[in-house]
Amino acid sequence: MNARIDGYVQDEDGRFLAGVEVTAINVVNNAETKAVSEKGTGGFRFLGLAPGTYQVSCDLEGYESYAAGGIRLSAGQSTILRVKLKRLPGTEAPPPVAEPLEDAVGPWKRWQVELAIGGFANEPVDLNLFVDRNQWLTKERYLLYMKDPRFVQISFIGGGWGVIHKLSSRWPLTLRLRLRVNRMLSWAVGIDWTDEQRRSHYLKDVAFSHLDAGTRFDVTNDINGFRLGLKTLFPHLGAQATLPLNSFVSLAGFLHAGWAFVECRHASTRRFQDGFTGEDRFYEVAMSGKGNGPGLEGGAKFECTLWRGLGLFVEGVYQWFRVRDVSGEQFLSETILDEGAPASGAAVSETRRGRWRVTDNANAWPLIPPADMAEFYRPFSLDLGGIGFRIGLLFRL
Q1: How many CB atoms lie within 10 A of CB 307?
Q2: What's the pTM?
Q3: Residue 67 is part of which domain span?
């Protein structure tokens, strides 16, 4: 006995009508409950209704009667009716009155909380170039030997521990607070959070035979502990336009704008061995950087109320971020294990701060150039954008 019906009555010009006789009839047992719309709001309510199917009628002198049927209520469920009465010819319009029922029942009734997860098809170009470059490093030297007629390939081992995946999708967590201005327009403030990582170990080992010397040697390139991560925090504000289809289902379109804060991080080790030249090198690289820039998202939404203000929604979203001039820190360590020279075992280690240059075909690892050479290097940037979806829960207060 805790279902309820709330509503308000207007005329054709949007004026709220007081003194309207409203009747709710349970179609199963024909039990009637009556109410009268309030002065100033045109609002009415039926509390403590038994679960069932109801018909609601509205009558006021000088206006055509109104009836709505098929209103199904389960235990604890509530619904809002928005009624418009047509004036009979020759009747005068009533004086304007105040706000609708949504404002009369208290300010918290206008708030909605949304929590969602989803996925995006997202291609940050610079980071994927970095991944591609690391994968190319495992092929570069042995391809030179394959093109030389003095060498013959004997055996090949590749990708024994998987592949280096591109950074290509994001799984955000979204929290949003929405304020309903009226039945069609609402404002929103929210935040998206993403933490994506790619981990891998990539190996190429090729055995060659030197035709002139008749010797066999291996070329091995092993990228181990490859980790590439991207964290994004996106606070945003926006608006939503809603089209209610009935008391439970609605369609909406939304547009949100904000500022994205991004943190990038990478760590990996690489061991390169060339049995022909005797070269044996070990590299360790670690980078971290932060940047920020504008962001925008928009899309369409389907909402469905399930029970007592609790609902489900699904969104189709296009999201776009532009983050430029990411500043960070890079640590690079190189150890020469054996080159057949007195310098065997020497180590070089350095740390640099500044703008990132991700990679190019002339450099084996990402680097941060000195300030006096910065104009020759492309700073690290992110252009994150893609189509995705979210599914989540909403709760109307």
Answers
A1: 11
A2: 0.62
A3: 3-101
